[in-house]
Write a structure and sequence with these properties.
The structure holds 2 protein chains of 2 kinds. Chain A contains 9 helices and no strands. Chain A is an all-alpha fold. The model of chain A has no long low-confidence stretch (mean pLDDT 90). The chains are: A mainly alpha, B alpha+beta.
Amino acid sequence: MTTDTLNRAERSRSLFRFAAPQVFYPIAGRLAPWFAGIAAVLTVVGLYIGFFVAPTDFQQGEVYRVIFIHVPAAWMSMLIYLVMAFWAAVGLVMNTRLSFMMSQALAPTGAMFCFVALWTGALWGKPTWGTYWVWDARLTSQLLLLFLYLGFIALTRAIEDSRRADRAGAIIALVGAINVPIIYFSVQWWNTLHQGASVSLTKAPSMATTMLSGMLIMALAAWAYTFAVAFWRVRSLILERERHTDWVGAELEAEAKRQ
Amino acid sequence: MKPRSKRLILLGSAVALLVGAVALVLTAFQQNLVFFHTPTEVAAGKAPVERVFRIGGLVEEGSIARNDDGYTVRFAITDTAQVIPVTYRGSLPSMFQEGKGAVVQGKLTSDGLFVATEVLAKHDENYMPVEAQYALDKAHQANQTVQY
């Protein structure tokens, strides 16, 4: 064996080390509070900028301030679904149990953000467009995303055998991921009532700087929140699934002693 | 080949096939996925006849007029190439303004008048402070004064 292949084997083994539930469990537990703290600080700063510092919009007045919640929630709802699909694919290919658990730990948070995006969007639509809801391509595909999340959660919870539940959920996650680019590009591909993207990688943002910074800080807060909640949830999933193992018993005893 | 690589190839081809299928379906239903037609499409006869559909565009400057009953409003929707006259009875969204976007739903009569049953305002993706818009307007005015 040459040194090169040896190094590669070593490196992949070290990465796989984190895929072991008993290794990841304490790491997630140590990281989660930090992310929760970051999320809390960023939310306070972001909302303060959004509601007190950012100027009134020339066109929509004060009602535009809903973007400080609406846009980060909508971004996060799409991103989380892609991350779920990624972990589902890794789980199917590599046969790693933790990947499926990560996928399922993310789903309720994604569904929550998706619902928040739809709800705040409806409240925004009434004073600006004159309606809570229309069946245009953007709104309809985002509603489909909520149903995909709920379907994923329902299916993975409905199947008793966790290995079969993992596989069934992974299929929904992968198939549904096709909807995410459709949501994102819907405003470009078809005429929609929903306006186009104000912030994208291909052009300069069409937003005043303070408004943009408030929105981006809220987006980072949503990221940090997602990390924290997903880590806590994956810990519960690990405990539930590994409850018959020795290390969970030892871990729980140690935790009980600490309290 | 390792079973892992086999699974990766299988998964990759399944996803690729699915993406292809969805792309075909979306292309086939292109017409139904469009929320509104543009005035140019309507003028070219591409809009549905004798059926409710939507037209989207800008409310033409100086086109809004109210009938004596104070309830019926007439205006024109334009994409700067074609103009479609619209009549509508009902209340308008507060963001409905001349020179701004709107989507109207209704039927086209044989004489080319669009009878709307619903009017929605469509705003764009630009956000800026009121002061910036004021400065832009002033600069625009100054420019026009120079030209005259």
